[in-house]
Amino acid sequence: MRQSARFTGRHAIVAIYFAFVRSKLEFNSIVWDPHETKYNLLLERVQRKFCRYLYMKMYGYYPYLYPSLFVSGMVGIDTLELRRKCALLVHYFLLFAGKIDNPTALSRCGLSAPPQYTRLRSRPLLATPRVRTRTAQYAATHRAVTLLNTLTAQHPDVDLFHSSVQMFLQKCKECFS
Question: For residues 152 and 124, what is the distance between their CA atoms, to the nearest angstrom?
Answer without folding.
Answer: 8
